[in-house]
Amino acid sequence: MGQKNKAGFFSRIPMKLKTRQAIIAYLFLFIPILFFVGIRISPTLYAFSMSFTVRGEIGYTIENYVKLVSDEEFIRSIVNTLLYFIITVPIQLAIGLIIALAIERVNHFKWFYRIMFFLPYMTSIVAVSWVWRLMYDPHNGVLNQVLKFLHLPQQDWLSDPKQALLSVSAMLIWQMIGFSMLIFLAGLKGIPQQFYDAAKIDGASKWKMFWKITFPLLNPTIVFLTVIGAIQTLQIFTQIANLTGGSSGSLGGPLNSTSSIAVYMYKTGFREYNLEYASAITVVLFVLILIVTLIQLKVLNRSYEL
Amino acid sequence: MLTKRVKISNIFVHLFLWIGIVFVAFPFLWMILSSFKSLPDFYQFGLLPEKLDISSYKYIFAETEYVRWYANSFLIAVTVTITNLLFCGLIGYTFAKFDFKGKRIWFVVILSTMMIPTEMLVIPWYVISSELNWIDSYWGIMFPGIIEAFGVFLMRQFFSGVPNDTLDAARIDGMGEFRIWWKIAMPQVKAALSALGILTFLGNWNAYLWPVIVTTTSDMRTLPVGISLYGTSDAGGIQWNTIMGMSTLAVVPMIIVFLIFQTRIVEGISLTGGK
């Protein structure tokens, strides 16, 4: 209400249109600018500066970073995070594309298929993580019960350091397929039908049409999904915390085999309360995300001009 | 001849999609069925419970603060959605329709905050919240999400497509600038607002990292934090049927809401590329 009166007030005094516009714009932007500076930008700078300090000591130091380079658990979490990316993103893209192509082909129940495959992406991550944890449970879980039924050797799944990361990845793929499918469906809609008609006249096979028309024209979609996938896997936390945390497991375990950068940050920052060291970890994360974003800007060459 | 072949191959495509659905939907089915099992039932192989056991649900409502967590999550998600729609609408409109010094810089500054990972921000937020006594309060959970840069970007894109004539006509009629935004401009971007609203609601409904850090008492937990801490703090072995009951109660209403709004949600996410 106050802003409305002010705007009306300004319209009554004679002044240049441009000045008036600027005053109104900054009235509208005043609170948002405070918010972004106070809750986003200053905290980022604070985290940076904090990463160069050690509790109980005055002045700046690179001690945290020196420690990080030789911290085995940290290196393990970086390697794991990269593994999550390498394992989950190509598979979820491939399956997402196949399902999108299949849905494009059928004439009936399109909407039904679309929702069904999208459900895992929509629902509560914590809730479905616990469902997967139960499925993986060596004694109560359905996977081992099926193996037992088929007289196959039972597995330890999440409790086996060799299988745990793959088990987490399987759930990540299950969750993300629907998202890739949806973005691929949007991408497929953008391909003009004339291209296929022309190819048909030339007698091209379906297989050839896919590799010569569909796939190249989906390239921006693939890049987009890869970038989103990279940013999401770099920050993966909730799934790991709920699949492995607690008294019946160990966060990021067993033997740190599932720990990610975010999980390690959480452990150092909010279990051991070494916020300075945790800040240094997040600075590394920040740099990694920055690199991915710059690659995206370069590849997609998308400019947000005003 | 040709149509017959197309029909047969279509049957295979349908079949393929149905096999996919079985894999995708199985965890949900397993979750619902498991919530009706008694604990000894879990040791036996079988999809269906031996006999329908609703003790898990009785336990959830009588012995845990599940309803409170649900209410907390709902209240927080609704509030943050409203602030985002209002602020992102106003900011996006300003950037799309006004010319002023510093416009480009502020827009880039706001957009660049999208790149900052939450993991990096939670540490300073935690320090701020401790200093200002915001730990374990609704405000403490909500304050970081009041405005999202993504929403600003989305709304600016949509307001750019709104023609200036109607706005200028209102100006000639002597309408105040704030009212022009609220009465004339906002109604023209309803589709974008509903997409942003749905995404914001879902994002906050599922938020985990910050709520788990900032809440300390059971009363203030959100639904994901409540389920998670109930599951991980169980020293006497995991009560699987209770956790599956909690998950079912969290997931099934969402699926129903999703089915009602499915076109909107799917369009919203395709439109915006999700988040």
Describe what you observe in this structure:
Chain B: Pfam families: BPD_transp_1. Chain B: Belongs to the binding-protein-dependent transport system permease family. Chain B: Keywords: Cell membrane, Membrane, Transmembrane, Transmembrane helix, Transport. Chain B: InterPro entries: MetI-like, MetI-like_sf. Chain B: The chain crosses the membrane at residues 12-33, 69-93, 105-126, 138-159, 238-261. Chain A has 306 residues and is an all-alpha fold. Chain A folds into two domains: 2-51; 69-300, Orthogonal Bundle (MetI-like fold), CATH 1.10.3720.10. In chain A, 74% of the residues lie in helices and 0% in strands. Chain A is built from 14 helices and no strands. Chain A is flat and about 75 Å long. Chain A starts with a helix and ends in a 6-residue tail after the last helix. The model of chain A is unreliable at 1-7 and 302-306 (pLDDT under 50). Chain B is mostly helical and 275 residues long. Chain B has one domain: MetI-like (MetI-like fold). Helix content of chain B is 72%, strand content 0%. Chain B has helices at residues 2-35, 55-63, 66-97, 103-112, 118-131, 138-142, 149-160, 164-172, 177-185, 190-206, 209-214, 223-232, 240-260, 262-272. In chain B, helix 3 packs antiparallel against helix 10 (190-206). Chain B is globular, with a radius of gyration of 24 Å. The mean pLDDT of chain B is 89. Classes of the chains: A mainly alpha (306), B mainly alpha (275). Chains A and B meet through helix 1, helix 2, helix 4, helix 5 and helix 6 of A and helix 1, helix 3, helix 4, helix 5 and helix 7 of B.
